[in-house]
C-alpha cells in the first residue's frame, strides 16, 4: 500500500495533460473546419442527399472527442488551482474559459449538430432540393461564431498553461 501512495511517486502533470488536450482539440477543430469540410464541399458531396447522414456521423464522433477534451482541460485546471504560479494571477479566468469551452462542446454535441442534420436530411426522394434552408444558414453563422470563440479561448488557456510551465522549469 505504501508503494502506491509513497511521497516520491510521480503525480500526473496536470499542465501537460491540459496542454495536450487543448492542442489536440484545437488542431482537430482546425483540420475539420479548414481541411475536411472544404474538401467534402469541393468534391461535391454537399449537394448529395446522403451528406446529412455522413456529416452527422463525422460530427457525432468529433463532438464526443471535443467533450472529452473539454472535460479533461477543466479537470486539469481545477486540479492545478492551488499548485501553480499561473493560478495566483489568472485562476478564475482560466477556469471560466475552460468552462466556456465545455459549454461550447455541449452546445455542439446536443443542440447544433442534431438540429443541423435534421434540417439537411432529404425526406422526399421525389422532390430533390438543392438549396440550403434559411435556418441552416443562420445556424452555420452561429457555428462559426462559437468556433471563433472556442479557438480564441482555447488558445488563450493554452498560452497561459505554456507560459506557466516555462516558469516552473
TrEMBL record:
Residues 21-122 form the TMEM205-like domain. Keywords: Membrane, Transmembrane, Transmembrane helix. Pfam families: DUF4149. This is TMEM205-like domain-containing protein. It is found in: Membrane. One of its GO terms (cellular component) is membrane. The chain crosses the membrane at residues 20-41, 53-80, 92-111, 142-162. Its main location: membrane.
Amino acid at each position: 500500500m505504501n508503494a502506491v501512495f509513497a511521497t516520491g511517486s510521480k503525480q500526473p502533470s496536470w499542465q501537460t495533460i491540459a496542454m495536450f488536450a487543448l492542442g489536440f482539440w484545437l488542431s482537430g477543430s482546425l483540420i475539420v473546419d479548414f481541411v475536411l469540410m472544404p474538401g467534402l464541399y469541393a468534391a461535391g458531396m454537399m449537394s448529395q442527399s446522403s451528406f446529412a447522414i455522413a456529416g452527422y456521423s463525422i460530427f457525432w464522433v468529433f463532438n464526443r472527442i471535443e467533450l472529452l477534451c473539454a472535460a479533461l482541460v477543466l479537470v486539469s485546471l481545477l486540479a492545478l488551482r492551488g499548485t501553480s504560479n499561473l493560478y495566483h494571477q489568472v485562476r478564475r479566468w482560466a477556469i471560466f474559459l475552460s468552462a466556456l469551452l465545455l459549454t461550447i462542446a455541449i452546445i455542439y454535441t446536443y443542440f447544433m449538430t442534431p438540429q443541423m442534420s435534421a434540417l439537411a436530411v432529404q425526406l422526399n426522394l421525389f422532390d430533390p432540393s438543392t438549396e440550403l434552408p434559411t435556418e441552416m444558414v443562420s445556424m452555420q453563422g452561429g457555428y462559426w461564431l462559437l468556433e471563433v470563440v472556442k479557438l480564441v479561448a482555447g488558445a488563450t488557456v493554452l498560452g497561459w498553461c505554456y507560459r506557466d510551465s516555462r516558469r516552473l522549469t
